[in-house]
Design brief:
The chain is α/β, with parallel strands linked by helices. 36% of the residues lie in helices and 11% in strands. The chain has one domain: Rossmann fold. The chain has a 6-stranded mixed β-sheet. A hairpin with a 2-residue loop joins β8 and β9. α4 packs parallel to α7. It starts with a helix and ends in a 12-residue tail after the last strand. Belongs to the 'GDSL' lipolytic enzyme family. Keywords: Glycoprotein, Hydrolase, Signal. InterPro entries: GDSL, SGNH_hydro_sf, SGNH_plant_lipase-like.
């Protein structure tokens, strides 16, 4: 018996030391001085509103009580990330009125894609691709350094408005982009090789992350894309379909299977790329966050979590194939329709059929920030220490 006990102790002792080391390791919080965010409308805090047409009510009604450039009734996941890390909300990079970039900047823009698209802004495209966002960041970093050098010579005083030059290497870089690329690929699924397209999208993403690594970024918090087949505006219940969807078209939550499968393929290739970059850049920390699973968990358990059916849309008119988006008016079947909001947005997952409500964003943020959906499984506050 004594030998058996010694053997067990011998086998478990290394494991015990590793657990203790991990506990000590994870107790060390990262001292992030700033956040730099890249993405699409899921994390745009005012870029498109500043560049083109501002949001109108009821956008922003729940938390801000006015439109603030966010595609939601309130806060986005990036807002909850900033709050969790003790920062103010991120200002959009091109929003010049009343902004401060002391703790970072947001380069995300609605409709943005990883790859360049042929569509114009008026066709739903955007000039603010991932490549452009990275170029904007590069300019921001260079001009910030210039201002600080001038300040040291007594020419300017910008220290209270911009990150310090040394903050860029210590900052956390967050990403939520790719959904619009997948949507574009879905629209061309019959005319393009979707597998090749998805591989190309991920390659473009990798190139831009490598550019940021070359510019000194070292901590990356990378969201994969969500279950695009679960966006209510695409569900058959909100579209005029002459036939009932065939077997296998929808899953148990009413989501479109083939669209989610494309998102899953993108996510798998994205994760492989993140793993590859970790090997190439061992001094960097690259966290892969499974947003798909977090969002799908909410959709699957909507009623249990206090939400209405996940196909429900709080703001907008989506009936019989007519899509009138939140805050707009139109004549439909001879009747003037105003796409107003629901009585209680906190009960809905979907705000406008495409974007999430503040309540849903808050629920998702609470699930991802502690590292439950991360690889490696570190909370965002410890994400600088992944390697």
């Amino acid at each position: 018996m004594g030998f058996l006990v010694q053997f067990v102790v011998f086998m478990l002792f290394p494991w015990f030391l590793s657990v203790r080391a991990e506990e000590n390791y994870s107790s060390q919080h990262c001292d992030f001085p700033a956040i730099f965010n890249f993405g699409d409308s899921n994390s745009d805090t005012g870029c498109m509103a500043a560049a083109f047409y501002p949001e109108v009510l009821p956008y922003g009604e729940t938390f801000f009580h006015e439109p603030v450039g966010r595609a939601s009734d309130g806060r986005l996941i990036i807002d909850f990330i900033a709050q969790h890390l003790g920062f103010p909300f991120l200002s959009a990079y091109i929003n010049s009125i009343g902004t401060s970039y002391r703790h970072g900047a947001n380069f995300a823009a609605g409709s943005s894609t990883i790859r360049r698209q042929k569509r114009t802004v008026f066709e739903g495209g955007t000039p603010f691709t991932f490549e452009i966002q990275v170029a904007q960041f590069n300019q921001f970093k260079a001009r910030t350094r210039k201002f600080f050098n001038q300040d040291a010579q007594g020419k300017n005083s910008f220290r209270g408005h911009f990150p310090r030059p040394e903050d860029f290497a210590k900052a956390i870089y967050t990403f939520d982009i790719g959904q619009n690329d997948i949507a574009a690929a879905i629209n061309k699924v019959d005319t393009e090789d979707s597998h090749a397209v998805i591989s190309d999208i991920v390659d473009y993403f990798e190139n831009q992350v490598q550019t940021l690594l070359g510019l000194g970024a070292r901590t990356f918090w990378i969201h994969n894309t969500g279950p695009i087949g679960c966006l209510p505006v695409a569900m058959p219940v909100h579209n005029a379909m002459n036939t009932t969807p065939g077997a296998g078209y929808l899953d148990q939550n009413g989501c479109i299977n083939y669209q989610n499968d494309m998102a899953r393929e993108f996510n798998k290739k994205l994760k492989n790329t993140v793993v590859k970059l970790r090997v190439q850049f061992p001094d960097a920390s690259l966290i892969y966050v499974d947003m798909f699973s977090a969002k799908y968990e909410l959709i699957s358990n909507a009623n249990k979590e206090g939400f209405v059916d996940p196909s429900g849309i709080c703001c907008g008119y989506h009936q019989d194939g007519y899509h009138l988006y939140c805050g707009n008016k139109a004549i439909i079947n001879g009747k003037e329709i105003f796409a107003d909001t629901c009585d209680d947005p906190s009960k809905y997952i979907s705000w406008d059929g495409v974007h999430y409500t503040e309540a849903a964003n808050h629920w998702i943020a609470n699930r991802i920030l502690n590292g439950s959906f991360s690889d490696p499984p570190l909370s965002i506050a410890h994400s600088c220490r992944a390697q």
